[in-house]
């Protein structure tokens, strides 16, 4: 009996340690964002703020460099998501429903292009964008992000479409639906869950992207991740405003993810387990 | 015309599209995808290959290329920083992948056995995965700081250290600190995948094991682990690919320093291309990473193929 208890105790202790490892950093970030410099830089550090403040959140939202970066991120991520979903859905439909020559070769090419390391693409894309005048524009960044997300959208969406019974589409065609109508009225509504999940993943990828954003943006189109990384590069790190920025900057994605948690977990695990 | 448009399938562009063969329609559907990928991936890759054989100079503000054959690749062999960078890339990748898998396995097991993992935790759990590498970097940099970092304080109280340390600035601890921060972010995803894998193992298998007198540990090694082998394999390859392309977090935390102690290939390629403006050498390094990744891609596709 005592062996069993000992085992249970060890199990629980390990799980508590793991829990702290995952939860504590987030809690620390959140608490730090409500602290005045007095508490932030106290030595030794105290867990709870002695006085809670929202001052720096307000200051942050009044700072032009932050709000414009947030707007840029919204524009870039929004367009990336909308365009790659619409283009990718069509491509996925072709792979899911049609037979055509060299289908597998095409599909593998699309998949493989997703696996190329981004660093190898950064240098040539940077040069190309520079030559075409797309460097330091929203369009250039959107185009880049679309190309990263397209293979993923095609791959995810193909499996969602395959899961829809083909008979439904055939019946719709007999009723006089055109090819486009089949997609609009049958396929899209029936794969709504998949569309939402894929859309969130694409949006999140674009929102969080840093490597390309840091090389291909300047003052005018700087995205949030670039702006936030700058907090650290500045001569004097403005910690008190950096933490609210980290929280506010993560909120759009976090809210999406937490709200659609069930879909997301399903979408994540399907790729790995299947 | 406008009258007919309301009844598609009879006239105009739509009807012609509907009368097409399936292959032709597939062509129409695929064209935008293929054009975009050709423009932004295939062509740039070819361009990068060319760059890796070239030397770029700025002549009166304009880029000028000279073909120099394999010189950039030869430079890799002579570069004294490379052996160290390769070693660290290997350490970073191996430690990150193995650490992530072990911790994720532990967490998946505790959730699977119901020790924790209510609705609240399942939600909280997605946060590290959804946070950007930049925010993750800011957070850990703050926790590691040598003046009043919380990690210092915790370790002092636990009696593990005698005085505060700048974990990211000391050459002995920097790499480990970066790896831990990266593991923190990649654990939840791996744990979710492993948990999903555990949930597909049939309960009968465990019951049968119990009837045969297998203890908890035996059941773990003879039922859980073998059943999860395909999932572990996929995770292993995916995590390795991600570790090879790690950049953001390292850049935010250390930029490869102190004294190159956290310099991995990917960061080194970036530094060469965008700090030293040696696009040719940067491209050659990037191609080397590509080749390493392709090897793993082949393994990955083969594993997926085997599982299906």
* Major sheet summary line of chain A: none
CATH H level, superfamily name of the largest domain in chain A: MetI-like
Which structural class matches the secondary elements of chain B?
Answer: mainly alpha
Major sheet description of chain B: 2 strands, antiparallel
What is the H/E order of chain A? HHHHHHHHHHHHHH
How many E-type strands of chain A? 0
Poorly predicted sequence stretches spanning 5 or more consecutive residues of chain A: none
Tell me which oligomeric state these chains represent: heterodimer
Order of helices and strands of chain B: HHHEEHHHHHHHHHHHH
Strand content of chain A: under 5%
| Share of helical residues of chain B | over 70%
Outline the low-pLDDT stretches of chain B: 1-10
Distance between the termini of chain B: 50 Å
Q: Strand order across the biggest sheet of chain B?
A: 1-2
At CATH level 3, the topology of the largest domain in chain B is MetI-like fold
Protein name (chain B): Sugar ABC transporter permease
Keywords (chain B): Cell membrane, Membrane, Transmembrane, Transmembrane helix, Transport
GO cellular component, one term (chain B): plasma membrane
InterPro entries (chain B): ABC_transporter_permease, MetI-like, MetI-like_sf
Task: Describe the fold and architecture.
The complex is a heterodimer of chains A (274) and B (308). Helix content of chain A is 80%, strand content 0%. With 274 residues, chain A is an all-alpha fold. In chain A, helix 5 packs across helix 7. The model of chain A has no long low-confidence stretch (mean pLDDT 87). Helices cover 73% and strands 4% of the residues of chain B. The longest helix of chain B is centred in the N-terminal third of the chain and has 31 residues, at 22-52. At the A-B interface, helix 1, helix 4, helix 5, helix 6 and helix 7 of A face helix 2, helix 3, helix 5, helix 6 and helix 7 of B.
Describe what is shown at a glance.
Chain B: It comes from Paenibacillus pinisoli. The complex is a heterodimer of chains A (274) and B (308). With 274 residues, chain A is mostly helical.
């Amino acid at each position: 009996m005592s062996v069993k208890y000992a085992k249970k105790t060890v199990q629980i202790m390990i799980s508590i340690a793991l829990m702290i490892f995952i939860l504590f950093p987030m809690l620390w970030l959140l608490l730090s964002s409500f602290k005045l410099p007095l508490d932030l830089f106290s030595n030794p550090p105290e867990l709870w703020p002695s006085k809670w403040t929202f001052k720096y959140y307000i200051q942050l939202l009044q700072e032009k460099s932050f709000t414009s970066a947030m707007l840029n991120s919204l524009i870039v991520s929004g367009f990336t998501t909308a365009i790659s979903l619409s283009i990718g859905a069509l491509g996925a439909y072709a792979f899911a429903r049609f037979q055509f020559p060299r289908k597998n070769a095409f599909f593998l090419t699309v998949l493989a292009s997703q696996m190329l390391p981004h660093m190898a693409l950064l240098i040539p894309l940077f040069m190309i964008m520079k030559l075409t005048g797309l460097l330091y524009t929203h369009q250039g960044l959107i185009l880049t992000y679309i190309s990263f997300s397209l293979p993923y959208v095609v791959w995810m969406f193909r499996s969602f479409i395959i899961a829809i019974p083909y008979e439904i589409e055939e019946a719709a065609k007999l009723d006089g639906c055109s090819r486009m109508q089949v997609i609009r009225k049958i396929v899209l509504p029936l794969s709504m869950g998949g569309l939402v999940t894929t859309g969130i993943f694409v949006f999140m990828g674009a929102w969080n992207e840093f490597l390309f954003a840091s090389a291909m943006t300047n003052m005018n189109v700087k995205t949030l991740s670039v702006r936030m990384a700058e907090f650290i590069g500045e001569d004097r790190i403005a910690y008190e405003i950096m933490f609210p920025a980290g929280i506010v900057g993560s909120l759009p994605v976090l809210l999406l993810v937490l709200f659609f948690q069930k879909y997301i977990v399903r979408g994540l695990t399907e790729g790995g387990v299947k | 015309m406008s009258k007919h448009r309301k009844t598609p399938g009879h006239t105009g562009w739509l009807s012609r599209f509907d009368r097409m063969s399936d292959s032709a329609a597939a062509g129409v559907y695929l064209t935008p995808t293929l054009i975009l990928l050709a423009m932004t991936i295939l062509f740039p890759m070819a361009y990068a290959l060319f760059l890796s054989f070239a030397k770029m100079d700025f002549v009166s503000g304009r880029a000028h290329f000279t073909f120099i054959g394999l010189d950039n690749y030869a430079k890799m062999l002579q570069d004294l920083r490379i052996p160290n960078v390769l070693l660290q890339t290997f350490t970073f990748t191996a430690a990150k992948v193995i650490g992530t898998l072990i911790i994720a396995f532990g967490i998946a097991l505790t959730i699977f056995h119901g020790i924790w993992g209510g609705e609240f935790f399942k939600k909280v759990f997605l946060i590290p995965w959804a946070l950007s590498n930049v925010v993750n970097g800011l957070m850990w940099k703050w926790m590691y700081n040598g003046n009043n970092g919380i990690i210092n304080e915790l370790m002092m109280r636990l009696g593990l250290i005698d005085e505060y340390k700048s974990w990211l600035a000391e050459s002995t601890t920097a790499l480990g600190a970066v790896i831990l921060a990266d593991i923190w972010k990649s654990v939840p995803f791996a744990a979710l995948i492993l948990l999903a894998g555990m949930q597909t193992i049939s309960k009968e298998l465990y019951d049968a094991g119990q009837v045969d007198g297998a203890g908890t540990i035996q059941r773990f090694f003879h039922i859980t682990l073998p059943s999860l082998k395909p999932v572990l394999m996929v995770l292993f390859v995916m995590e390795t690919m991600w570790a090879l392309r790690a950049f953001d977090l390292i850049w935010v935390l250390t930029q490869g320093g102190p004294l190159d102690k956290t310099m991995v290939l990917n960061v080194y390629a970036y530094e060469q291309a965008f700090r030293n403006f040696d696009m040719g050498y940067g491209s050659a390094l990037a191609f080397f990473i590509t080749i390493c990744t392709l090897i793993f891609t082949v393994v990955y596709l083969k594993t997926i193929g085997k599982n299906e």
